[in-house]
Amino acid sequence: MRKHVVVMGVSSCGKSTVGELLAQRTGLPFRDGDDMHPAANIEKMASGQALSDLDRQPWLESIGRFLAEHEDGAVVGCSALKHSYREIIRAAAPDTVFVHLHGPYELLKERMSHRVGHFMPVSLLNSQFETLEDLRPEEAGLVLDVSAAPEELAAEAAQYLQS
């Protein structure tokens, strides 16, 4: 079984929910990447400004370190929108597998508009879609449609990790 997993995608795709369910199914610890952002990143996003690659780099490095420190494996929810971001994570944890939760803009915008107490405003969703780069054929991972129930997505991801 693959042990280092990043559940990725744009805001409101279900990274935290599916990540926690996947962690439960696999017996691995879960960490929400949102909780690993430096305060300056959270303040910037909360004010409606998209993060730059420079803003993201220390955060992505910390996610890679977290995975590497968990030799027995771990699951992290992290947007990991660009190939270069995923490369930063893989520099520390080369065997990382990405589970990309993908869905249409309107569905995710609707979900986002109902979230309470999260720092990411709906106004930044478009910038995330513009930044998103699909997994490349050489990247270990799979793409799941977020229209399915979170339990189904976690089950499918767990099955993939077992193969």
Automatic annotation (TrEMBL):
Keywords: ATP-binding, Gluconate utilization, Kinase, Nucleotide-binding, Transferase. The keyword Nucleotide-binding applies. GO terms for biological process: D-gluconate metabolic process. Gene3D superfamilies: P-loop containing nucleotide triphosphate hydrolases (3.40.50.300). Pathway: Carbohydrate acid metabolism. InterPro entries: P-loop_NTPase, Shikimate/glucono_kinase, Therm_gnt_kin. It holds the Pfam family SKI. The keyword Chloroplast does not apply. One of its GO terms (molecular function) is gluconokinase activity. It catalyses: D-gluconate + ATP = 6-phospho-D-gluconate + ADP + H(+). Belongs to the gluconokinase GntK/GntV family. PANTHER family: GLUCONOKINASE-RELATED. This is Gluconokinase. The lineage of its organism: Bacteria, Bacillati, Actinomycetota, Actinomycetes, Mycobacteriales.
